[in-house]
Fold this protein.
Amino acid sequence: MSNLLEKTVIDVHHWTESLFTLKLTRDPGFRFENGQFAMIGLMVDGRPLMRAYSMVSANYEDHLEFLSIKVPGGPLTSRLQHVQPGDTILVNKKTTGTLVLPNLLPGRRLWLLATGTGLAPFLAIVKDPEVYDRFDQVVLVHGCRHVRDLVYEDFIRDHLPANEFFGEQARHKLVYYPTVTREDFRNQGRITELVRSGKLFADLGLPHFTPEDDRVMICGNPHMMDELALYLDDLGFDQGSHAGAGHYVIEKAFAEK
Ligand SMILES: Cc1cc2nc3c(=O)[nH]c(=O)nc-3n(C[C@H](O)[C@H](O)[C@H](O)COP(=O)(O)OP(=O)(O)OC[C@H]3O[C@@H](n4cnc5c(N)ncnc54)[C@H](O)[C@@H]3O)c2cc1C
């Protein structure tokens, strides 16, 4: 149990029947880089049941925040979705992950491409003042099935630009492109299709990806991630990791069984 911290639930917000946000107390000793994930969980039958979760809260915030799916019958989330303020959550203090700024080479434009809960690590990144110092533009693309799944839309649109420290930079540099696949909306289609067809770039009035100018972080369902990684490889992009910075980095938003 030495790496496991016991943290208290401060708030639970249910966005939809399948998505919720948890806010927890934070231990001053819990350190991480924006974009990383940790293992969190509950004691079940006397043993910790832990799953990987990306931090939504930035590393300078005094609470911890996580965005969670509710998987029907899922060992952890069928329990986690019922927690209430005051309950205890286990958080492993070892954090890791590839979606961190040092894993990217310098560039002009940062693309954050997320599907579903893959948005979570990018919420920490768009709250990081360093991202606006390092890039001329930051484009956050969030793909979901339904409009109701576009969680944190108000936060991205209204709160970030009003931030007292980096709001002005966010107003000038952050571009948000939500898209859905299963109902009418101003932006429609899968991220992979929007990239391949060029519609994403045409809609935003931005040039197509080039290894010279663009840096890409991808987090989402494993199929879209694999497809986009191959696509970027064909364009001459190199994948970055802790072993060496590259033009793009990827992380699965969940493991398929
Ligand atoms: C690096 C990493 C980071 C992760 N970050 C998050 C996060 O920030 N938020 C989050 O909700 N989950 C995240 N996950 C998934 C998370 O670890 C669990 O799988 C999820 O909480 C479900 O747990 P479970 O025990 O209920 O079901 P599991 O037995 O873990 O999963 C059952 C099945 O549900 C599906 N599934 C699991 N998670 C998701 C998801 N997020 N979106 C869509 N389908 C899913 C998959 O098909 C999976 O095989 C992450 C996974 C990895 C590998």
